[in-house]
Amino acid sequence: MVVHNVDQFLNGKDINATYNGYGSCPLFTGGTKLMLAEFLYGGVPSETFYKNKEVPRTEFYYMKKEALPYAYWNYVPKGRWFGCRVFAPPSFEKS
Predict the structure, then answer these.
(1) pTM for the structure as a whole
(2) What total of structural domains would you count in the chain?
């Protein structure tokens, strides 16, 4: 979003990307299990991986431990990581 808006500004276009409030909160439940709470503004659930977020999962533990730190340090600072969309940049319509 920031990359998009900076590009728009530098090219004399309208800044039209807005943040929808997406957040992800890993909740460690013990052992190698984790729950991943994903939500938008107002606490509205926003599931990316599974519809049932009430079940602690081992794959979330390893995702948090291995994949997300790598993605954060290698893609986020370069503007090439788009959260729950991963590598697919969102499209922004003029509002």
Answers:
(1) 0.66
(2) 1
